[in-house]
Amino acid sequence: EVQLVESGGGLVQPGGSLRLSCAVSGFTFSSSWMYWVRQVPGKGLVWVSRISSDGSVTNYADSVKGRFTISRDNARSTLYLQMDSLRSDDTALYYCARDWTGGAADYWGQGTLVTVSS
Amino acid sequence: QSVLTQPPSVSAAPGQGVTISCSGGGSNIGNNYMSWYQQLPGTAPKLLIYDNDKRPSGIPDRFSASKSGTSATLGITGLQTGDEADYYCGTWDSTLSVFMFGGGTKLTVL
Fold first, then answer.
1. Cβ-contact A97, A108 below 8 angstroms
2. What does each C-alpha distance from B27 to A48, A65, A79, B32 come to in angstroms?
3. What DSSP element (H or E) covers A115?
4. For a 10 Å CB count at each end of chain B, is N or C smaller?
5. Can you give the C-alpha Rg of chain A in angstroms?
């Protein structure tokens, strides 16, 4: 059974930092490109970042470039998102997903909620 | 405001069919594969269509999709109340090197 389990969300003050984790099982993580996608409750999906299977290639949405860092530990089958200089508009539910074929995200976690507020 | 444009809402009666459009440009839809997602209330998105028109295992053939130029369309036939959800298109943008989702379309089965 495929499982993607996000953790690390919570309440943080503006300007603060959080590190999200996504623990993967049920498919070969080390061969898979991975995404982070976020969604403000009641709003649409917004792509955040992508990382290649070996971690050598990363891409970011303009809104998070320079503030967020995607990384992975293939030995632990875990994806990360380091979020620094957080702003109120980063408040959202953050999903990890597998970048399968043609960019399609086939497996998704249930999300972890990040709230940026003073 | 999304680069990929979807209608905010569509509706149809049970048993009927509906189409959802997604309009973009040459650097995204025009030059990359499309995918479509269904998000039921309170749940994570689910992949419905990949590589423009292919259905993952387990997705019924009531769901179909096509792409032409810089536009794509998702079709759903034999609507059921359980199809009420938000639907999103998505594709890579080769110029910006980002993945992008449409703004989403809320399907109501009346």
1. yes
2. 19, 21, 29, 8
3. strand A112-116
4. N
5. 13
Averaged pLDDT, B53-73: 97
Which chain A residues have a beta carbon less than 8 Å from that of B92?
A: 103
Name the percent of chain A lying above pLDDT 70.
100
Residue B8: the pLDDT is 97
- Beta carbons within 8 Å of B110's beta carbon, 6+ residues apart: B11, B12, B13, B14
pLDDT of residue B3: 87
CA pair distance B106, B38, nearest whole angstrom: 10
With a CB-CB cutoff of 8 Å, which residues 41-100 of chain A face chain B?
Answer: 44-47, 50, 59-62, 95, 97, 100
Q: CA A116 to CA A10: how far, in whole Å?
A: 8
Checking if the pLDDT of B40 tops 90, the result is yes
Per residue in B21-33, pLDDT tens?
999 999 999 999 9
Q: Is B46 on the interface with A (CB under 8 A)?
A: yes
pLDDT at B2 over 80: no
Given the DSSP bridges, would you call strands A45-51 and A33-39 parallel, antiparallel or unpaired?
antiparallel
Q: What three-state secondary structure class fits B29?
A: helix
For B44, the closest of A61, A101, A109 (CB atoms) is A109
B57 Cβ contact list (under 8 Å, min separation 6)? none
Q: Strand ranges (DSSP E) for A26-102?
A: 33-39, 45-51, 58-60, 68-73, 78-83, 92-99
For residue A45, give the nearest of B32, B45, B49 by CB distance: B45
Provide the pLDDT confidence category of residue B1 given band limits of 50, 70 and 90. low
